Amino acid sequence: MRANQELTRLLRTGPFEAALDSAIDATGMSLEDLRRRLDARGVTVSRTALSYWRRGRSRPERGESLQAVARLEEILGLPASSLLTLLGARRPRGRWIDHQPGTLARWKLWPSSEPLLKALNAPPDGQLSFVSISDLLVVNEEAGIRRQRVRLVAEARAERVDRCLVYHEMDDPQNLVPELIAVPFGRRGRVRCDLESRQFVAEFLFDQPLQRGEHAIVEYELKLPVSQPMDHFYRHFTRPAGLYTLQLRFAGRHPAWVRRFDRNTAERVQDLWLSEAGTTSLVVPEVRPGTVGARWVW
Fold it and tell me: What superkingdom does the record give (predicted)?
């Protein structure tokens, strides 16, 4: 009874994170339970984001995040708009105040990345644009093999650009992160991991600083963690990019189906043809800021 009274008070007075934490505790649901129920309602939110919202380390502000909060109210049995009201007006922050139209700040897609970015003294957004980005993902669930090979063709949008940062975030219950195992094209710089947020940031150095309009190629390979069946692969884009390709190769057991996932202003689903050899691909000639990837079912 006391817990219900405390929740009622927090929904009236806030703060948002305390009300959300109390509401989750009242239901006894885990963050994974919430993530799955949100996913069933067509809203994708990582457990890391839910955890950060709950502890006040970040706040839901994007349209998709606010939609997730509305669905959370339903799942948690709360009055409509009770959590949304506690968020108040959207807060302008740092670099986002002067953002370029049609782009997203890095912290918008990686809300928990700020400590890693500060550790690497990350350059400002927009110093590089990408002519093309290619992902090759090899998955063999039976053998416990997951490898990702990435090829980036970058163009300098400022003078004397000397490095490129890449970000990866894993939705892994054992707080595992990728391992950088090869850099066939480019020079490896610093690598930082945050096990709590399951984030991985790597720095690649160019052979010489790029002048505006000059290009560089970076190619690297990751060993992805294996602790639960893998059923999706997404890539986040903070700004428009050129050609994006995703190649999937399933060795051993093949999934029942594979579908494209594309979230910008809306979510679109498209079935991808899976060959007898267990390969499929998707091609996006012009990428907008948002999330592109694939889901599959075993």
Answer: Bacteria
pLDDT value at 91 more than 60: no
- Among residues 132, 134, 191, 130, the alpha carbon closest in space to that of 161 is found at 130
Round to whole Å and give the CA distance between 53 and 49: 6
Q: What CATH fold (topology level) applies to the domain 2-87?
A: 434 Repressor (Amino-terminal Domain) (1.10.260)
Q: Where in the chain is the domain with CATH 1.10.260?
A: 2-87
Q: Does residue 108 sit in helix, strand or coil?
A: helix
Start-end of CATH 2.60.40 domains in the chain: 100-297
**Better-scored residue on pLDDT, 114 or 132:** 132
Q: What angle do CA 170, 178, 296 make, to 5 degrees?
A: 50
C-alpha closest to that of 44 among 19, 27, 74, 67 = 67
Choose the CATH number for 100-297 among 2.40.128, 3.30.1360, 3.90.220, 2.60.40: 2.60.40
234-283, pLDDT tens digit by residue? 888 878 889 999 999 999 889 999 998 876 544 556 889 999 999 999 99
Distances (CA, A) of 80 to 24, 73, 98: 16, 6, 33
